[in-house]
Amino acid sequence: MPYAAFTTLHDAQLARDLARTVVKERLAACVQIGQVTSVFRWDGAVQEEPEFRLLFKTSAEALPNLKARALSDHPYDEPAFWAVEMDTGSDSFFDWIHTETKG
């Protein structure tokens, strides 16, 4: 089954660079980047910051290496990375994700 995986970064260029890297390395078939506002508690205070959310479309086989790559040089003290299995969707789309993430 394919997975939708996510992380966030504070800089648009870093987000684009990571997206291009993981697609080039076949760790994700596609990455969507969207600007979001995150509200969170950090160092005892409520913070609000603009961020860029990356949505990676990947396979179960590529997920561990995608996670390692996304977190390897992540600039945050506590980087977020999470993934959910896509259990319902277009078979041809799922096949495309699997084909594009074969090493």
Automatic annotation (TrEMBL):
- Supply the Pfam families for this chain: CutA1 (PF03091)
Molecular function GO labels: copper ion binding
Q: Which GO terms describe its biological process?
A: response to metal ion
Family in the record: Belongs to the CutA family.
**UniProt xrefs under PANTHER family:** DIVALENT CATION TOLERANCE CUTA-RELATED, FI09726P
Q: What is the name of this protein?
A: Divalent cation transporter
